[in-house]
Amino acid sequence: MHHVAPLGEAGWLSGGDHESDWAPIRRPGGGFATCRRISSCPTFCSTSSGERGVTLVELLIAITLVAALAAGMLMALRSSLTTMDRINARLEGNRRVMGIQQIVSSQIGGVIPVGGACRLNGSLQSLQLVTTYSIGEGARGFPHVVMFKVEQDPEGGLQLEEIESPYTEGGGCGGGTAGPNSQTLVLARRLFSCKFSYHAPPRPDGGIVANWVDSWNGPLLPSGIRIETVPLDGVTSNLPALAVNAQIHITKLQMAYVDDYE
Description:
Elements: E1 22-26, E2 32-36, E3 44-46, H1 56-109, E4 121-122, E5 126-131, E6 144-152, E7 158-166, E8 183-199, E9 212-213, E10 224-231, E11 243-247
């Protein structure tokens, strides 16, 4: 077996190197490598292949780039989750407003033309009526007295609340206070303004009155009731706090009506 020595600049053994100090070793992938025997150290090999390792600096740069990409993805994911929560909250608020609008429209549309102290009586910031539609029983229960009124909101601005109680022969009307069998619901909060308006019914000759008035206490029911609200914070990208335009198709005179709730 022949010894293979490394070549110097001139293609010969470098100075100070002896041929006996070098020995060929077969590599696992094929070919030979020249290895120098050093008495005080393990065998030192010098290969002539073009393969090279990864330095510590390159490894640190790669780890830094991967960490930066992971942090960017985490921030993007967090921003997406925050946006989704805001959208869900807005949609939930819109669904609540639409549900309340439907309830109030059904209550006004189901008004009963009763007489006495419980008949329909409305002003700019309050409305009292007897209706066949209630919050707890829907359209299947007994008649209820419903009182809408505008109050001060503890969080600032105004709020529109509803007080609903069963309509009985001996029940009081017009007080606007919650009783033992009543139910109170806050329809809208943090309002800048809230007002009621009433549309007069058609005239006996069939003519239509186009004006809206700020109060109603006549023997006939109005043909429509409108509730307009303006949010305190002036948000216009969302649905209004509450906007109701309910039609009343009953044209009879308000008369005495009794239906015992027992």
